[in-house]
Each structure stands twice: as structure tokens, then as C-alpha cells.
Amino acid sequence: MKNSLRIERAVLNISQQELADKIGVTRATVNAIENGKYAPSGLVLLKIASICNKHADEIFQLEEKDWNN
Known about the structure:
The protein has 69 residues and is mainly alpha-helical. It has one domain: lambda repressor-like DNA-binding domains (434 Repressor (Amino-terminal Domain)). 57% of the residues lie in helices and 6% in strands. It has five helices and two strands, in the order βαααααβ. The protein has a two-stranded antiparallel ribbon with strand order 1-2. Helix 2 (16-23) crosses helix 3 (27-34).
């Protein structure tokens, strides 16, 4: 799954740690999400979308490989 989380954080001018604190995960988890190494749970995804004031699909997009699991 690809995402624009790094861009959304820049727009909000918040650090990975600040976002992590707001959504209840570690900074390392936010980093892994941004780098496409970790797909967030539905709850975390919705928290991120809410903080960014966007729909989840505006931040996270499925890729072809996501359909082949």
C-alpha cells in the first residue's frame, strides 16, 4: 500500500513523534507506515485520516501487489 503520509505530516507541520503520540503508536511505526513497510490497522488508518482532515483513500492507496496476497 502506498501513501502520502509524509506529505500530509509536512502540511500539518508535525513530526513523526507528534503524530505517533496523537494516534497511540510508536514513532518507529509511523516511520514504517510512511516507508510502506507496515500497513496500519483500520483504527490507526482512520485516526491518521481524521488528524489530516482527509478521507483515508486520499492518503492510502492500494497497489496491484496488495490484491495478490
